[in-house]
Specification:
DNA-binding
DNA sequence: GAGGCGTGGAC
DNA sequence: TGTCCAAGCCT
């Protein structure tokens, strides 16, 4: 263990006290309840919390409890998830709502073991719900906590949450007064003070116990993540219009943008000609190029080519009136495709 | 364990 | 402008 018991009590008490007076005003902090917290944690996975704050009230208004989501269809959840990315989270949230309804009487369980059974709930999310919604002394380590704890101990090892950090987190939360205040406070400190780029050490309640601050190593801890090389691929989208309606198809249930909708599109590892795209999509009329753009993901660089095509209304497509497009679950790249069509 | 899985803000 | 990053999970 990295800390003496006395240091642990100092650290936990300083964090709880700092958070009590410095907590930002997020909508879920007005009346925290387990389902709201669970939805918040799903939306917050790999997503900056300020963006979650805009979407969370809309999601909770439509789905105020697990039952309302459990009996709805997945499309409604995906619709409200548009633009947030990592759409598997939306599908897992819907599945989790169903499990809560069928296995847990519609309530969010408070123990880690039960929480970990829920699809889309890993060690962090389970710990966050148990500690923040139920005041359980359960550890959490997200990117913020990992950074704060590594700096606190001048631990230069791992770039991402590690066994070491989880042990430190557990040793602290075990002895804290309020797991809700301590865990959320530790995250909030990392998000607002002990930031990745330029930490505001002069505003930090832990400055006097921070080993990295003493050694002036805080800007190098933790080390940057190794990021995989982005693979370049090609997507060909065709806007098919017929009497004010556009043709759409749904992407398959797994992989990129799973379950989201798109205008007829071909994904390809290699460049294709207009004729090849037309043949693969079984379109009879010539495709007219109306624009191109690049869409960058965490693991791909996608070169989009956009075409338009005149066509009779075919039943194999789902036809949507132009003024109802906002109800269709579309990833951001497809919004860009539609923007190209609007300008053209 | 390494890669798939998005997006937009910050600098 | 390009690079890094974010309240991670799953396979």
């Amino acid at each position: 263990m990295a800390f003496e018991q006395e240091e642990i009590l100092q650290i936990t008490s300083k964090i709880e006290s700092w958070f009590t007076k410095s907590a930002r005003d997020f909508p879920w902090r007005n009346d925290d309840f387990p389902w709201g917290r669970l939805v918040c944690e799903f939306m917050a996975q790999q997503t900056q919390i300020d963006r979650v704050a805009q979407r969370w009230p809309i999601m909770l208004q439509r789905f105020p409890d697990a039952k309302s989501m459990a009996i709805s269809d997945e499309q409604g959840v995906l619709e409200l998830w548009q633009g947030l990315g990592y759409y598997r989270r939306a599908k897992n949230l819907k599945k989790t709502a169903e499990v809560l309804e069928s296995e847990f009487g519609g309530e969010v369980p408070s123990d880690i073991e039960s929480l970990l059974q829920l699809p889309g709930v890993g060690k962090y999310t389970a710990g966050a719900i148990a500690s923040i919604a139920f005041e359980k002394h359960a550890p959490i380590v997200d990117a913020n906590v990992h950074r704060v704890l590594c700096r606190l101990c001048n631990h230069a090892g791992e770039s991402t949450p590690s066994t070491w950090t989880w042990q430190i987190s557990e040793s602290l939360v075990t002895s804290c007064n309020s797991p809700r205040l301590f865990n959320e406070g530790l995250m909030e400190l990392g998000a607002t003070v002990c930031t990745s780029r330029s930490p505001s050490c002069d505003d930090c309640p832990l400055q006097s116990c921070c080993s990295a601050y003493k050694e002036n190593t805080q800007r190098d801890i933790p080390p940057s993540k190794k990021r995989a090389m982005k693979k370049c691929v090609y997507h060909y989208s065709v806007v098919v219009e017929h009497e004010g309606e556009l043709a759409f198809e749904q992407r398959k249930d797994s992989g990129l943008w799973a379950g989201m909708w798109q205008v007829p599109t071909i994904d390809s590892d290699i460049k294709l000609t207009e004729a090849q795209v037309r043949k693969k999509l079984h379109l009879k009329n010539k495709l007219v190029s109306i624009g191109e753009f690049e869409h960058v993901l965490s693991h791909r660089i996608i070169s989009f080519s956009v075409f338009s095509c005149k066509l009779a209304r075919e039943r194999r497509f789902f036809w949507v009136k132009q003024d109802l497009l906002h109800e269709l679950p579309l990833a951001s790249a497809q919004r860009k495709v539609l923007a190209v069509h609007c300008i053209a």
